Amino acid sequence: MELHDCFTANELITYEALGLTPAGTAEKFIMDGENTYGGRVVTNPSGGLLSKGHPLGATGLAQCAELTWQLRGTAGGRQVEGARTALQHNLGIGSACVVTVYQAVD
User: Is residue 67 within 8 Å of residue 102, measured between CB atoms?
Assistant: First the structure.
């Protein structure tokens, strides 16, 4: 999963908004390691938007590329083992929100 992590708090809010964890439990979700390799949902294997300097306009394309690489098994050291389904969450100016689900095709 690639989340629009423009601010640290946004990641917490998004886990709950997407129903990945019940309201008020996002902190526990993270502390239990459920958002990383070996957990339930690997979040931002690319490093997230902030690791790239959050380039406006390019963030959605970077997320799309990362998820495509993950599903193709070509993400190198970032590869999520067994990735078959991926989710992209992106925000835009004016509160636009896009959630896209990708699925590997055999």
Answer: yes
Contact 9, 27 (CB under 8 A): no
Burial (CB < 10 A; 0-12, 13-18, 19+), residue 26, is: buried
Report the 10 Å Cβ neighbour count for 76: 7
Q: CA gyration radius for the chain?
A: 13
Q: Of 98, 103, 104, 105, which Cα lies nearest the Cα of 14?
A: 98
pLDDT digits (tens, 9 = 90+) for 58-91: 888 999 999 999 999 999 999 999 999 999 999 8
> How many other C-beta atoms are found inside a 10 Å radius of the C-beta of residue 21?
20
